[in-house]
Amino acid sequence: MTALLLKGRETSRQLQSDLAMSFAELAAATSVQPTLAALQVGADAAASGYLRAIRRACQGVEATLRPVVLPEESSQGEVKAALTELNEDGSVHGIMVLEPLPDHIDSTQLIDLLS
């Protein structure tokens, strides 16, 4: 069997360029700035690293990132309230819940809140 080397950098660059152009056209036509919210609970290293990667990706396409970082000890209700607030904010166009979450937070309840 022959190995096939997959190269995604060029495809990634093209997608990033296309998105940046689409977002710029949207902003020019409607004054809407595409905004992504990222909800992190606690300071888990993996979630923090993911947030950094998301920040770089947003910068690459000139989208706004709105990070929301809650303390590790936040209750399920506090996390749900923060997520509900983001969900109801018309200036937020997408929401990511960063995992892993602390053990006392039920991620399925959070995902059910997203619309």
From TrEMBL:
Record carries keyword NADP: yes
GO CC field: cytosol
Start and end residues of each Tetrahydrofolate dehydrogenase/cyclohydrolase catalytic domain: 6-113
Molecular functions (GO terms): methenyltetrahydrofolate cyclohydrolase activity; methylenetetrahydrofolate dehydrogenase (NADP+) activity
Pathway(s) annotated for this protein in UniProt: One-carbon metabolism; tetrahydrofolate interconversion
UniProt cross-references to Pfam families, sorted A to Z: THF_DHG_CYH
Keywords: Amino-acid biosynthesis, Histidine biosynthesis, Hydrolase, Methionine biosynthesis, Multifunctional enzyme, NADP, Oxidoreductase, Purine biosynthesis
PANTHER family in alphabetical order: C-1-TETRAHYDROFOLATE SYNTHASE, CYTOPLASMIC, C-1-TETRAHYDROFOLATE SYNTHASE, CYTOPLASMIC-RELATED
Name assigned to this protein: Bifunctional methylenetetrahydrofolate dehydrogenase/methenyltetrahydrofolate cyclohydrolase
